Structure formats: structure tokens, C-alpha cells
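Re: [help] complex structure
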Amino acid sequence: MTAYAYYPGCSLHGTALEYAKSTEAVCRALGIELKEIEDWNCCGASSAHTVNPWLGHGLVARNLQLAHATGLKELVLPCAACYARFKETAHALGDPATAARIEEVAGGDVPRDLAIEPLLKIVVEPERIERIQSSVVRPLTGLKLAPYYGCLLTRPPDVAQFDDPEDPQTLDQLMRVLGAEVVRWPGKTACCGSSLALSRTDVVLDLSHQLLAWAEAAGADAIVTACPMCHSNLDTRQGQMRRSGRGDHKMAVYYFTELMGVALGLGLSELGIHKHLTDAVAPLARVPAAAGN
Amino acid sequence: MTESLRLAPFAPSGVVAFVEATSGQTLNDCYQCGKCAAGCPLARASDLSPQQVIRALQLGQPDVALDSRAIWLCVGCQTCVTRCPCEIDLPRVMDALRVWAMANRRAAAQREVPIFHRVFLKSVELLGRAYEIGVVGGFNTFSGHFFGSADLGWPMFVRGKLKPLPQRTRARGEVAAIFQRAEAMRARECAAAQRDAGGERP
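Output below.
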């Protein structure tokens, strides 16, 4: 067992509950212990830094203090958007004058020595990817996937410090290890419209429709992502795209943890796959059942 | 579609100084190559392209930027800063412009965006966490889009994705204190910028 401090973020306790369920199930199966940090607060998401950068840093700083209190050295985040906010503050703490002001807002010392990692990075560490490879009981043979990284896992590169900002590969490699086929497509790192979902829904529908159309044109059966915001815009809004005449999509959008769980032989309801608004169970029919089932 | 920008002659501006200080960027580093505009996913929905926002600031005319829809439509996708040959962090410049605009209660050209941010942050200030039903309800009420996203409410509710009751942080006083101290620091910075600008109109 390797233990990590764990920050789920607000989405995983609500709209992205299938990401939380599949994250917890897959980590259990892989011997990764997630210790949810005590009494965490929202990271400020896309709003706090826009109104006041010090608020954005202050909200993240309290969570860093709580993560430090676990005594663990690594903090893991499944949500790409929370990850970006945490890394932004960690980056800002590197400047002594800025750090002093962040600590003034946070009301105390803010730890600098925590490793802040996206869940996606943790699961592909060399010894773990070997374990995944040898634990696959239901290879995702016949499933063609468009890996979708979105914006915040990899950009800006000097802050995110993860994979390549223009042509990232981590999700591609992980999905191939699970037995899936990965398509080349132009939407890998394009933006879904993110937090404009309520304020300019039309823009989000345009951008997300474009992504789905690109994935379809590349021959993908489904999209796989690591971001609750992207998932929400792509999965939840396909009915709105249809009704507004943008396009008739029926494309499942998975969290990478859900597909890991399927390949590891975990139950679909344990992974929360029936919670999607666009049917995500049907495309799995083309994946052969686990050996011995 | 964006059109060519019409600007008056250069004038020094305290707002521009505030934007440079808050964003940590040197705006004159930009030589207007347009790479940011080429990759901007919001450019087609916008009035100014990202490099036009910078140009207005370079020429000392922050009102052109502050009155644009562009500063509100930027979602911080980080494509521009990733590709900028001069390493200008445009999303931080956009943040600084929005901070100034909201702090000075300027009318936003895309009024729904600051309404969303205020409602979202009110949830965080009161509860410590985001409360989706409260955020959607608050946004719809204050924006006048009364049935916005209503079609998604029931399908998400029956799947357990919308919780009737909010999740909370127990130590809400600690979160509220962060809001207060952050607001005090922001107010100090804005006041200093206004002083430096010699009482310029916000």
C-alpha cells in the first residue's frame, strides 16, 4: 500500500460522482491508499482568481495546510481544474514576496514541500503500469477511444509540469495498456468552453459540439477524459446540442478511471458508469466479457 | 468577428500600471505577432482578439479593454501563454483587468460572467464548497435567465449528481476569514494604483 493525501474537490462530491466512485474503486484494486484531507474547502475554481488572485491563492493555501497535516508527502488530485489551481499557487509560492502575501491571506505558514500530482500521473508510474498490465482481465479490445486532455492538465507547461502541452501521451499510453485502440484526432488539447457553461451556454455548446464531431470523424466510439468540467460539458449537454440543431451526437464520455475499472474486471455500478447522461454502458457491449465470467 | 482597432494617441494610465503589477507581465514585451489570437478558442465569439486587448493597454487606453466582451469570455484555457514567443501570461492579464473592472463596479460587456463568479463565490464563502443547485438558482435569478439549464436539473438529480442539500466545510469561519483578508489585500492594491494614477476615473 502506498498512501497519498487526497483532495477530491467539489465536483467529485456531486456532478462527477462517477469519477469519485471509479477513482476509489480503482485505487483500492491497485493498492493505492487515498487519505481524504480533513475538512477541505473549494479551491476557488475558475471564479476566485478572476475576482481576486489573493482569494484564489488563499483558498488553495488552506487545503495545502490541511494536506500537510496528514504527514504525507504527496497530494493527489483527480480533477484537472483543481489541479491547475493548486499548481498555480504552488508556483506563486516560489517567489518569496508573493509567498509572504499568500501566507498573510492564509493566516499562517503554507507548506512548500508537498508534491502535488494529478491522479493520472500517479497511476502510470512505471511499477504501477506494470501491475495494471498484468491485472487486466477484460481488455478493452474493439473499443476506439479519443483521448481528451483538455486545457488544465498540461497548460501552461511551466506551472502544470505534466506531459506535453500540444501532444500529450499519458492517456493514450494508459488506454493502449488496457487494450483499447486510440485514434488520432485534433481535439486532444482543445477547450470545451469550461466555466461559461451557465453564462454563455451557446459558446460551450459550439465548442463541445466541435469536439464530439472531431472525435466522430476520427472514428472514435467514445471519448476518455480526466476533467469533470470537460466531462460535464461533453456528456451532459448532447441533448441540448441535438435540440439546438448543432449536431446529433450519441458519444459516451468516460473518465479514465472508469475504463481502468472495466479492464480490471470491476462491476459497472461500482464504477458509476450508469450515472452518465449519455449512455456509457452500451459501447462496452463490444468489449468481450472478462475471461472466466 | 474582430475588426481593426481604432485607438486614440498614447496616454499614461494607472489602470495599466495596476494590470502590469497584478499580472506580473510587461505588456510592451508583446510585438503583436497574433499567435494568441490564432489559437484562442473564444476569439470567434469575441469582440477583441487577445492581442488587441494587449495593444489597447500598450497604447494607454484601458477603457477599450475594460469595455470589451473579450476580457469576460476568456476562460483561462492557457493556450495563448503556452504558445506566446514572448512568454506573456495573457490569462493573468485578463484576470487583472477583470479584478479592476469588478472592484470598480464597471458595467461588464458580458454581464452574465461576473454574475456567475459572484454567485459561485458566495456559495464558497457561506459553505466552504460549491453548491450546484444554489449556484444555478442564484445565477438564473440574478441574470434573468430564469430557466437556464433547467432541462438538465431532473436528469442530473435522479442520477444523484445534484444533491438537494449542500456539502459544507465545517470550519466555515476559517474560509470566511480568508475571504476577508484577501478582500483587504485587493482593496489596498487597487487604492494604491488609483493613488499612483492621480485620482484617475476608475
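The domain at 2-120 of chain A is CATH 1.20.1050.140 (Glutathione S-transferase Yfyf (Class Pi); Chain A, domain 2).
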